[in-house]
Design goal:
- It contains no helices and eleven strands.
- With about 140 residues, it is an all-beta fold.
- The strands form three sheets. Strands 5, 6, 9, 10 and 11 form a five-stranded antiparallel sheet that branches. The protein has a four-stranded antiparallel sheet with strand order 1-2-3-8, with no helix packed on it. Strands 4-7 form a two-stranded antiparallel sheet.
- Strand 2 and strand 3 form a beta hairpin.
């Protein structure tokens, strides 16, 4: 079963801070894994990002659950830079394991597409957020 989610671009280096454009995040639920496809729907713009994280909703707040879904749990991996031209897509697979290798428990989750570190704001540049999805 495929679920289609749309995420708003929050900030790209080449776009003004308040500009909003769309990218699409498609999530296909698989028995053990989830496959995430990120597509660039911004005409004449390139999207650059460094990976996909997972957040879990707990007591109405989003909490970090897993960094860099392309990296096996409990491993140190370098984040690869992904560049997507208009209408290009990239696929990532999450094995539904958290940072310390435990399997994701029932709950509400979302994917966060991570850009370069923002040294001016001393934090991570979030490129996009998926809609919420449930694991049961």
């Amino acid at each position: 079963m495929i679920r289609y989610f749309t995420a708003l671009i929050i900030g790209l280096l080449s776009l003004p801070l308040l500009a909003k454009s769309e990218i699409t995040i498609n999530i296909e639920k698989i028995d053990r894994d989830a496959e995430i496809t990120i597509c660039n729907n911004i005409e004449n713009r390139e999207i650059t990002y460094r990976g996909v994280n997972v957040e879990k909703k707990e007591k109405e707040r989003w909490r970090f659950a897993k960094g860099n879904i392309d990296c096996p749990c409990d491993a140190k991996c370098r984040r690869a830079v992904v560049k997507l031209e208009f209408e290009e897509c990239a696929t990532h697979r999450w094995d539904k394991k958290m940072t310390r290798c435990e399997v994701a428990r029932d709950g509400t989750y979302r994917f966060i597409v991570i850009g370069d570190r923002d040294t001016k704001r001393n934090g991570t540049n979030i490129v996009a957020k998926s809609s919420e999805f449930k694991i049961q």
